[in-house]
Amino acid sequence: MMFSILLSLLFLPKGLCILCRSDYTLINGQLCLKYFSTPALHAVAENNCKLNGGTLVTVKNVIDNVAITNFARAAGGIEIWMGLSIFGNSVVNGYFDDASGITAYFNNYVPGYPSISSGFCATMLVGDNFGANQGKWRNANCNHQNNPAIKSFTYVCEVPPTYSASSCEINYGGNCYWRSKTLVNGALMNFVDATTVCAQRGAKLASIHSKIEVDFIKQQYKGTNVKAIMLGAQAVSNTTYIWTDSTPYNFNYINPLTFQTGGCLMMEVGGNGLWNQIDCTRKLDFLCKKKIAPTIFALPERPPIPFVILDSSNCNQDFVMASNTFSSYPAYDTPSVVCKWQLLALGPYRVGIFVDFWQTNGVLDVYDVFGTNIGHYGGVFNRYPFSLFSPFNVARVTFTPANSGTPNDKGFHAVILPI
Known about the structure:
Elements: H1 2-10, E1 18-19, E2 25-27, E3 31-40, H2 42-51, E4 55-56, H3 62-74, E5 79-82, E6 84-86, E7 94-96, E8 121-125, E9 137-140, E10 153-159, E11 162-163, E12 170-172, E13 175-179, H4 180-184, H5 191-199, E14 204-205, H6 211-220, E15 229-235, E16 241-243, E17 264-267, E18 275-278, E19 285-291, E20 319-321, E21 324-327, E22 339-344, E23 351-359, E24 363-367, E25 373-377, E26 386-389, E27 394-400, E28 411-418
Parallel strand pairs: 5-10, 15-19, 20-22
Antiparallel strand pairs: 1-11, 2-3, 3-10, 4-10, 5-8, 6-7, 8-9, 12-13, 13-19, 14-19, 15-16, 15-17, 17-18, 21-28, 22-27, 23-26, 23-28, 24-25, 24-27
Protein name: C-type lectin domain-containing protein
Signal peptide: 1-17
InterPro entries: C-type_lectin-like (IPR001304), C-type_lectin-like/link_sf (IPR016186), CTDL_fold (IPR016187), Snaclec (IPR050976), Sperma_CUB_dom_sf (IPR035914)
């Protein structure tokens, strides 16, 4: 990886160089890091990193592990939060918070870790007092319910590096962004007219490729009266979209409970950032986006996060990682036993549960990580689609079928998303 980074630096177009936002430090030619010296609970640290357009620091190779350790130690760190969610006792159960992969590819756990009994989050030991364990990782308990035993740690935030560019309104992740208020003084436009305005900058209506980018874009509209923006997506079928900038449609954040139809998508920047289908003639604020450097010079990509696959019954106790679906067995039918699922989202996010189909006499119960019931649904055979959000990144769900089903009892279906 380091060789590819050096090679890309060598052949960058004249005038371009990899850089970080002004308050972050470039480490190893690819990492943009900032140390926060005030100890914080994990949720506070994660949220601060989200507001910066990133996550808690992630570590993908031994060279970066050493560099991050030295960076945090030099700033006064002893033990820091890192961007890692751990859902089991194996290296395949460790998920980096930027959705880039699992710790099976690289890890540096303290002997005896990962250990789920110690918590779902992780810290990195950077102080000299840790001896041979300096630079290693271990589980930490981070979800809390007014629990004084939960610890606070200092932390390092990581944001995507970008390239130098003089004409951007917003420079982030190797792209220039322009809000419509900058280009057309806030005039609302339909898809065609907005596309024309973006083209005047050599740009396209924005495509979005990660939850991190969703959060970053939301932040750009904080404190404004803009509630929704037009995105650069067009429908090729009732359920399939493409990005007009020709980038892959590799991330989907359409609200599962929006039953509208339309050839375009808008993003709710004033809410959770979910997307809704709309008619392309609707007039909205919009966001333009342009890649700063050619694709060949794109920043290094990491192995994709693996999907957690349910067993064939759908009625089990497996982990289900957002984004995904779960339902009674078989699909749209009622099981004969109690079904149980553990729903997960990466560290910075809550679990969003969107029940888009309900035709059952059964009972659905949702519990937080402490076993507190946060949702009880039963007594209504045909229930209108509904949603609920867990307070943490772990939720446990049970579905108890009716004692005596009816021929029309078809169970339920739900989508989970990171919120």
